[in-house]
């Protein structure tokens, strides 16, 4: 926060005096070459930030805790993403028409995005997955029929390993050659289907009002179907976009609309409910508390050939905090045990390993120390001090119960499940 320069790093100038100059500077900036992705590992903090974000200038609230997660996901997979976005903050700053913060690479590839209703995000995303799979199958069947494509190119396309970015880019080169052949042979069907031979990444974006409440039935059903969709839940623990109403994600003792006297019941554990299926990848992350774990969880979730659920701690102006300090606030949420960091990866079971990896340490500060740094909790100490004290004790019990439950679960022996070679 302290600028090391002797003079002011920023100073005001008349826009009309500098606009033409800055337009040239901006154009120059956009023409700078991108770093060759083969020279770094994008699955690290440093590597991920060498990739161009395909989400920019969103117009969200200053310091929004949601947008960094969206930006990061587009950096990692934006060139092949199809996004179904639930109505809420993320659909407002994500689709503030006629502008959009989603953009494309120099080659024209970028996220495809849509928003319908609050409650049907998961169903629309599931429709994306079914459509992509069906068109992929049609493309394969058509490719096998045509006689103008050399057998070696057919085999390379049909057996391509697309588990890495390098593999996907090579497949795109093959598909480009296929489309050239289709055009030469007036094969409109092959030309229109060919792009579905390249792997797509399906994402569901939404807040806790969608995932915990209004859209939970759909989300649960779609995750239970076992298909390859990725759900990114931007958890502000309150209905942010509609004015700060309590949701099932709102924690005990927090004040909100419809919970002015402090929410009397604990937060719903969405991640634990998803883990009960046994075949859903589940992660709970907080970028400000552990950036490494955030990148790792998102990379693992997308690579999992099945449903994934990533729950992201997202500070909000509705919390009553100085948003310039949200990184510290996320650390306090994790240090107090209010927010656990973990990854549940079903692939580990076949290796005889516990699928649950607890990435946060035992709580090191009382939950009250975290709570009373935020006005959503602190206000109750002034309006109903006795109730605030009672709820704070219960909130500490919630933390202790949750930590001990997850710790015991993470220590279970899974050696019995190891598959024999």
Uncertain runs = none
Label the structural class. alpha/beta
N/C terminus separation: 55 Å
Q: Any idea what the radius of gyration is? A: 24 Å
Numbering strands along the chain, what is their spatial order in the largest sheet? 2-1-3-4-6-5-7-8
Biggest sheet details: 8 strands, mixed
- Number of continuous helical runs: 16
Encode the helix/strand succession as letters: HHHEHEHHHHEHHEHEHEHEEHHH
Helix content: 40-55%
Q: Overall mean pLDDT score?
A: 95
- Envelope shape: globular
Beta strand count: 8
Beta-strand fraction estimate: 5-15%
Primary descriptors:
43% helix; 8 strands; 16 helices; 421 residues; alpha/beta; eight-stranded mixed β-sheet
Report on this structure.
It is built from 16 helices and eight strands. It has an eight-stranded mixed β-sheet with strand order 2-1-3-4-6-5-7-8, with helices on both faces. Helix 15 runs antiparallel to helix 16. Strand 1 (81-85), helix 4 (89-94) and strand 2 form a beta-alpha-beta unit. The protein has 421 residues and is an alpha/beta fold. The model has no long low-confidence stretch (mean pLDDT 95). The radius of gyration is 24 Å and the shape is globular. 43% of the residues lie in helices and 9% in strands.
């Amino acid at each position: 926060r302290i600028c090391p320069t002797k003079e002011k790093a920023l100073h005001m100038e008349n826009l009309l005096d500098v606009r033409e100059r800055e337009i040239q500077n901006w154009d120059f900036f956009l023409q700078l070459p991108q770093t060759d992705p083969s020279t770094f590992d994008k699955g690290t903090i440093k590597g991920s930030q060498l990739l161009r974000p395909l989400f920019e200038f969103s117009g969200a609230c200053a310091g929004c805790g949601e947008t960094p997660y969206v930006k990061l996901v587009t950096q990692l997979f934006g060139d092949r993403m199809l996004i179904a976005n639930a109505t809420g903050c993320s659909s407002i700053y994500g689709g503030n028409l006629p502008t959009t913060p989603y953009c494309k690479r120099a080659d024209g590839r970028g996220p495809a995005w849509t928003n319908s209703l609050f409650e049907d995000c998961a169903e629309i995303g599931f429709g994306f997955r079914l459509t992509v799979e069906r068109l992929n199958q049609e493309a394969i069947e058509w490719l096998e029929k045509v006689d103008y494509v050399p057998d070696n190119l057919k085999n390379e396309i049909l057996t391509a390993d697309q588990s890495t970015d390098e593999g996907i880019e090579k497949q795109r080169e093959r598909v480009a050659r296929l489309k050239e052949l289709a055009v030469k042979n007036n094969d409109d069907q092959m030309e229109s289907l060919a792009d579905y031979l390249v792997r797509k990444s399906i994402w569901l974006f939404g807040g806790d009002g969608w995932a915990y409440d209004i859209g939970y039935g759909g989300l649960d059903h779609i995750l239970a179907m076992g298909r390859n969709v990725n759900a990114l839940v931007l958890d502000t623990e309150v209905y942010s976009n509609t004015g700060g109403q309590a949701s099932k994600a709102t924690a005990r003792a927090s004040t909100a609309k419809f919970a002015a006297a402090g929410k009397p019941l604990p937060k719903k554990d969405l991640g634990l409910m998803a883990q009960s299926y046994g075949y859903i990848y589940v992660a709970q992350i907080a970028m400000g508390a552990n950036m490494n774990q955030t990148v790792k969880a998102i990379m693992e979730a997308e690579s999992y050939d099945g449903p994934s659920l990533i729950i992201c701690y997202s500070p909000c102006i509705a919390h009553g905090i100085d948003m310039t300090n949200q990184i510290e606030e996320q650390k306090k949420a994790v240090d107090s045990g209010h927010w656990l960091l973990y990854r549940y990866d079903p692939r580990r079971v076949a290796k005889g390993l516990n699928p649950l990896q607890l990435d946060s340490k035992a709580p090191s500060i009382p939950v009250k120390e975290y709570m009373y740094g935020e006005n959503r909790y602190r206000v109750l100490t002034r309006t109903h001090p006795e109730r605030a004290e009672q709820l704070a004790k219960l909130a500490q019990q919630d933390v202790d119960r949750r930590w001990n439950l997850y710790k015991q679960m993470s220590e279970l022996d899974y050696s019995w499940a190891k598959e024999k070679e």
